[in-house]
Write a structure and sequence with these properties.
The chain contains ten helices and eight strands. The chain is an alpha+beta fold.
Length: 270
């Protein structure tokens, strides 16, 4: 190796060592120490990274909680129990936590459904709805391909007779199934198991005459429920609407359920 080459190699080595030394000093001075409470908070959280809290992961939720950028009761799947444990770690009040569950607004199983076409594409609801709105004669009903089931991080949904069946015990109200359904037939409703959960298992805004042609279990806006229990039911845009939170203080839902001619008013809880 000649002198010029040796000098060049030594110069490069010296520069490398110098910059490595500078970077090491800067790394120590500029480093941010992790708050040990992040791991403690993560251990309390469900750890499913469902995003129901509004952030992408439990790690990020823990960091933002310590930075006071999210609420201590912001973990939807964790509910009141997790909120209280997090509050204890932070030394704050947990606040009120409202339990919600997913409710399906369609009662047409495989036998009740009428088809207007033969769909042979990708077996997902999101794909089927892109092809002329899907193969069902009812343009509001469940397509039955289970996008909601696959989206649930808590295994709270299973497809039965072409319809999603919600396990009310496992359901945390995270809302993933609501986002996944292209027909918008799933909603989140305030509910706890201290009273029966009832719903209108229909989502159609068509007039009664049209509904009768395409679905035997759809709402025909006959107003019987509204007349029997006006404090609970109201017909709006050709569809019976139930004020679910009022079920806690009002049990006048049995007559409408019994008298509904299409049986689209159903009791979901035992």
């Amino acid at each position: 190796m000649n002198t010029v080459t040796l000098v060049a190699v030594l110069s490069m080595a010296g520069l490398g060592a110098f910059f490595a030394f500078i970077l090491a000093i800067l790394s120590k001075k500029l480093s941010v120490k992790d708050d040990p409470r992040v791991e403690e908070i993560k251990a309390i959280l469900p750890g499913v990274n469902c995003g129901a809290c509004g952030v992408a992961s439990c790690q990020l939720f823990a960091e933002r909680l310590l930075a006071k950028k999210v609420a201590v009761n912001g973990c939807v799947p964790g509910g009141a129990e997790v909120a209280e444990r997090l509050a204890a770690v932070l030394g704050v009040e947990s606040g009120e936590t409202v339990k919600k569950v997913a409710v399906v607004h369609c009662g047409a199983g495989l036998k009740e459904r009428k088809l207007r076409a033969d769909y042979r594409g990708l077996k997902t609801c999101s794909a089927a709805v892109m092809v002329a709105g899907g193969e069902l004669a009812c343009t509001y009903g469940c397509l039955g391909y289970g996008d909601c089931d696959r989206s649930c991080p808590f295994d709270a949904i299973r497809m039965v007779d072409g319809l999603p069946q919600i396990d009310l015990v496992k359901c945390t109200g995270c809302g993933k199934c609501v986002e996944a359904c292209p027909r918008g037939i799933i909603s989140l409703e305030i509910w706890d198991d201290s009273y029966p959960l009832v719903t209108v298992a229909c989502n159609s805004l068509d007039k009664g005459k049209v509904v009768r042609k395409v679905c035997p279990v759809g709402c025909i806006a006959c107003k019987i429920c509204e007349k029997l229990a006006p404090e609970l039911f109201k017909i709006d845009d050709n569809l019976a609407r139930l004020d679910t939170p009022k079920l806690k203080e009002n049990d006048n839902w049995e007559k409408p359920l019994e008298k509904c001619p299409t049986k689209c008013i159903v009791k979901l809880s035992s």
